[in-house]
C-alpha cells in the first residue's frame, strides 16, 4: 500500500467517523439505553443512563418524562414517589410499536 492509498483511506475513515457521530447526535435515547432502564430507578439514575434530562410530560398521576429522538421514536418513564414504576417506548425496538410494562419483569424472582 502506498502513501496515497493510506491517506485516502484515512480520509474516508475520518468522513465515516464524522457521519456516524452526526447520526448519533440526533438520537437522544438508543435501544440499548432503553433496555437498561428498570423500575425502581430514580429520575437522576435514568438521566445518567440516557445522558439527557428528557422532557416532563403532563400526566394524570405521578410524573412522566419522555426522551424523544428526531425520528419520532421515544422512551418514557412513569415515576411515583421519586422512583420509576414503568417504562414504555415507541419506534426504538424495530417493528415492535410498544413494549409491555417492564414492571412485571422486575417483580420476577
From TrEMBL:
Residues 1-24 form the signal peptide. PROSITE patterns: PROKAR_LIPOPROTEIN. Keywords: Signal. It comes from Deinococcus sedimenti. The keyword Signal applies. The lineage of its organism: Bacteria, Thermotogati, Deinococcota, Deinococci, Deinococcales. This is Outer membrane protein assembly factor BamE.
